[in-house]
Automatic annotation (TrEMBL):
InterPro entries: Bact_Kbp, LysM, LysM_dom_sf. The keyword Acyltransferase does not apply. Residues 18-49 form a coiled coil. It comes from Kordia aestuariivivens. It comes from the Bacteria. SMART domains: LysM (SM00257). Residues 115-164 form the LysM domain. Keywords: Coiled coil. CDD domains: LysM. The keyword Coiled coil applies. This is Peptidoglycan-binding protein LysM.
Length: 168
């Protein structure tokens, strides 16, 4: 008969132990579980950071809950008024890594909704005020509507989204 060649890890396990393929599969599963745990921890930290930012800006939302699913943030809770609700949406939406905000918040005191404006290169609050109100000198209305997120009317950036409230 002679000498025959076989693949030693492919046969039946008569001697006990695990094949190298089984060991590799277990290691891959372990690494995947570790990765999922790291992702879950990072997501929880990011959610907590967003909530802390909202709190630090004195935006009061009862039972505020923020959940991140990929690049989408889901927000629930009860805002005192429409302006607070919109500011919370802007804080979350203007956060790096967030592409969509699923706003599920309720409002205690209903008011008309503001428009949103995405800042383009070359925009100023005066230019935006001229576009929405027909008067560049109304820029303080936009500035005030976006406090406390805006600290200076000259510090806006392309891609930032701003509240444009209706004039009284």
């Amino acid at each position: 008969m002679g000498l025959f060649s076989f693949i030693k890890d492919a046969g039946a396990k008569i001697f006990g132990g695990k094949t190298s393929a089984e060991k590799a599969a277990e290691e891959a599963i372990e690494k995947a579980e570790e990765h999922l745990e790291e992702v879950a921890i990072k997501r929880a930290e990011d959610e907590a950071s967003i909530k802390e930012t909202i709190h630090d800006l004195d935006l009061h939302v009862e039972d505020l809950y923020v959940s991140l699913e990929g690049d989408t943030a889901i927000i629930t809770g009860k805002a005192y008024d429409q302006a607070t609700k919109e500011k919370v949406v802007l804080v979350v939406g203007n956060t790096h890594g967030i592409a969509m905000v699923d706003d599920r918040m309720e409002v205690e005191h209903k008011e008309p909704e503001a428009q949103f404006h995405t800042v383009a290169k070359g925009d100023t609050l005066g230019k935006i005020a001229k576009q929405y109100y027909g008067n560049a000198m109304k820029y303080p209305v936009i500035f005030e509507a976006n406090k406390p997120m805006l600290k200076n009317p000259d510090l806006i950036y392309p891609g930032q989204v701003l509240r444009i409230p209706a004039l009284d």
